[in-house]
Prior knowledge:
Layout: E1 12-18, E2 21-26, E3 29-33, E4 43-46, E5 49-52, H1 61-64, E6 69-71, H2 83-89, E7 94-98, H3 99-105, E8 110-112, E9 117-121, E10 127-134, H4 143-146, E11 150-156, E12 161-166, H5 174-182, E13 187-191, H6 207-216, E14 221-225, H7 237-246, E15 262-264, E16 288-290
Parallel strand pairs: 3-6, 6-7, 7-8, 12-13, 13-14
Antiparallel strand pairs: 1-2, 1-15, 2-3, 4-5, 9-10, 10-11, 11-12, 15-16
Helix pairs in contact: 6-7
Amino acid sequence: MPMMALQDPPAIEISYVGGPTAVLSIGGLHFITDPTFDPAGGEYASGTVRLRKTAGPNVSRDELGHIDVALVSHDQHPDNLDHAGRALLQETPVVLTTKAGAARLGHGAIGLDAWDVHTVKTPSGLTLRITGTPARHGPAGIEKLSGDVIGFVISIADTNQDLVYVTGDTVWYEGTREVARRFHPRVVLLFAGGAMTRGPFLLTMGTNDAIETAAAFPGATIVPVHHEGWAHFTQTQQDLRKTFDTLGFADRLQLVEAGKPLRFGSLAGQSAGPSVVRTQEALNSPLVEPAAASGKGCA
């Protein structure tokens, strides 16, 4: 199949499931992030703390359809991989996670360190490159408590176009800053919520970190997930909206809503609206089109 022209990147469709879980569809390939499908009301031991789930998924496992690749930022915290999510991994052909997580999960899970690469083919003939990225689940010193975490960048291997950066559970620090130096994605799927379980410090990105991320990725639309559904979140999507509006980043944030998939860019061969400029500079420009209905301890 001929290589897709540089000016015709594939569409990226994002369907929000709930918590850290979203389905990314690129070139006919379906990715899922940190699958969580348990119902609301459960309590889970996570080291010396307990986590309480306050909302179930917006989409049931049966409604989800086929998943080709699971991107699991870490397996040791139940708000990122719960019981039903683990069952889904057994049915997923490719599971990418940390090396420690892959050893625990077994069943062919593939472990990545930061900057390691795994490639997959799409039904449309593209080769997608998935690069592991650094993540730190809280302030300096948290590593021994939280365990390993990883993020992912999905790129087109043939053209070196970066499509999506999935941050995983991390704060803004030198590792994420290095991701911004190396990659220029069109979308950043940002794990937000300002999680707090062990003390007066955040374990995931809050509003300040989200703004730093937006500033470091000037060509990307920020799509926040992992900000609801669990009792340990301290910040909401609306907190992000107020912050982005106040600081002049209003057009950079796209909030998620159950049942309303987002589509970024245009499929090759489709006509683009007048606002779409098919140039190299436009490849990283935020463009959102409504899609057709269609074991370590702290979290």
